[in-house]
Amino acid sequence: MSAPDIDNPKLHCRMLEQKFPNEDDLCLVTVVSSSEMGTYVALKEYDDIQGMIPMSELSRKRYKQTRLTRVGKEEVATVIRVNSESGFIDLSLKRTTPEEKSAFLTKYTKNKEAHLIMRLIAKKADVSMEELYTMFGWPLAKKYGTLHDAFRKSLTEPDVFEPYGIPANILDALHQTISHYMTIQPLKFRADIEVSCFAIGGVESVKRALLKGVECAGDSGLVIKLVSSPLYVLFLTLPERQKGMEIMYAAVAAIKAQIESEGGSCVVKRDPCVVSKEEEIEENEDTTEDANSQDAEDE
Question: Which residue range or ranges hold the S1 motif domain (predicted)?
């Protein structure tokens, strides 16, 4: 935030609906200062309210304590005591496992990105962040798991905001800001099938079956590539997981029905699935012929 924004109370708000964390919750904290009693920290998700990590809760290894108490250092801590009346919060570093930390940081990153978007909207619309969170932010987070997930869903389903009665000027700022700062990462789908037909005219039968699969997928962009007869790979790129899987399964079913009607067979070697970036690179190396433009070899 710029200097004027730091002093603007409208642009300050906790990320989460509850004002204080619960015991055993994980929090991202920033070290503010340290003393003989322990380390004082600011809880990032709760608009920097203060908590303390007692010296005994820093680490099981003494040599780590100096490094962990460096001012400005960020850590994931476990809440061990909360007094909501006094605002007194005790936390622990040594009780936080690496697995818990990794899962928490994934969710925190989402919350942080959504929080920045909320701040931009508040600034554009000249309303407080807490007003926005109360109006739609916290309800959406409760419904979709995180506000970030709700924002991302709105890129393909803008009506996710309809139930909340959001004023037109705020809704416009919301759509514009989300579109600018969030881009949908398309998913890559893949299925492996063996299609063969030993009857007379088997090559044409295979081609007709594969064409049925492409036709079934409509304008979704399904591509079928020949690896090595009779192995073919179906590829599809779409942002929506459910729709992509439905198209892939339908295409495989269409190919299977067509080839079997002509006396051939279709064996699914790999069910439709979403592939990783590493697998995508391997696919580009292994599949070099497009079944839509190349003849299949007749076994």
Answer: 24-94
Q: Which residues contact 47 (CB under 8 A, 6 or more apart)?
A: 12, 13, 14
CATH topology of domain 101-182: DNA polymerase; domain 1 (1.10.150)
Mean of the per-residue pLDDT values for the chain? 87
Write out the two tokens for 50.
């203060």
Of the pLDDT bands very low, low, confident and very high (cuts 50, 70, 90), residue 275 is confident
CATH 3.30.70.1130 in the chain is located at: 187-290
CA–CA distance from 9 to each of 6, 124, 126, 130, 167 (Å)?
A: 8, 15, 11, 10, 21
Residues with Cβ within 8 Å of 45's Cβ and at least 6 positions away in sequence, in order, are 14, 15, 16, 21, 27, 28, 108, 111
Task: Return the beta strands (E) in the chain as ranges.
Answer: 26-34, 38-43, 49-54, 74-83, 88-92, 187-196, 223-228, 231-238, 265-274, 289-290
Give the least confident one: 84-98, 177-191, 207-221, 272-286. 272-286
**Spatial CB neighbours of 291, under 8 Å, sequence gap ≥ 6:** 207, 210, 224, 225, 226, 232
Question: What would the CATH number be for the domain defined by 25-96?
Answer: 2.40.50.140
Stated pTM of the model: 0.61
How far apart (Å, rounded) are the C-alpha atoms in residues 48 and 26? 15
Between CA 170 and CA 10 the distance in angstroms is 15
**Residue in this structure with the two tokens 């990462």, named with its chain if needed:** 185
CATH architecture of structural domain 187-290:
2-Layer Sandwich (3.30)
Report whether the peptide linkage leading into residue 230 is cis, meaning its omega lies within 30 degrees of zero.
Answer: yes
CA gap 140, 15 in Å, rounded: 12
